[in-house]
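Attaching the record inline, Q. Sequence:
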Amino acid sequence: MATTYDFIARNKTKSMVLIVFFVTFVSLIGWLIGYYSNYSSGGLILALIISFIMAFVGYYSGDRVALMTSGAQGPLTHDQQEYLFHIVENLCIADGLSTPKIYLIPDQAINAFATGRDPKHSSIAVTTGALELLDKEELEGVIAHELSHVKNYDIRYMMLVLMLVNVISLLSRWFFYAGRFGGRSRDDRSNIGSILAIVGVVLLILSPIVAMLVQFAVSRRRESLADASGALLTRYPEGLMRALQKIQQYNTQPMVHANNATAHMFFANPFGSGKRSFSRLFMTHPPIEERIAALRTMGA
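Structure, as predicted:
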């Protein structure tokens, strides 16, 4: 049976594989565009520069992008949110983690997410709705869930996935315009240009679907694992169960800054319980009913 340390090791390995794939993919596209534009080496060099810069930015600044996208405000000081700080600090001490930076999302939905490249460089964002509608045990359950993502290095992997999703969209447009305006010569410009333009159009159409599937690759199993890890941390599955029940009750509308690119990072679906996926394949989170049922077995 896999242990928590096995999941941590896998997440670290998958993060490196994702970076290598990202750099290779961007470089290949750059070479193709440069080749058919009579600038083969220039296209490859440009692609390498862009891929390394974006990989670097994604690794070291992806957390700031996620926080900005979600409308998070902070980092907060202890005096600004003493109640929230005490809960986070106590759970971090219990789990042997460094205390993350704490942010507040001005939204009435009950939600939260964690981000950062490793446990020593992490942040946690909590909505105002979670602070207002959850009691202490329920809020502890939600935060313990997010801290489990931090400990398991899920946040690094999810952050890199977010970066890859954005780059897929960028490259689809790059490919389209290269096919439309580029070409190796006047004779083959129309043929090659048309092919690249068609590929670009296909990528433009498919990129949102690819983006979703990449996000879903950050599997629902990670959410289930974080639920279990969070319940073990608080030693009180009932608190997390009650929080999920309140989310079913109150989160009927999308969050103000709900975004497909960051949906998989949140504790619960930021589009609200009213948005139903037509297939389990297209869900960022396990159904709340299943999460509650799994937690109930832990409390039995």
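Strands lie at 101-105, 112-118, 121-127. The two ends are 22 Å apart (CA to CA).

More tomorrow.
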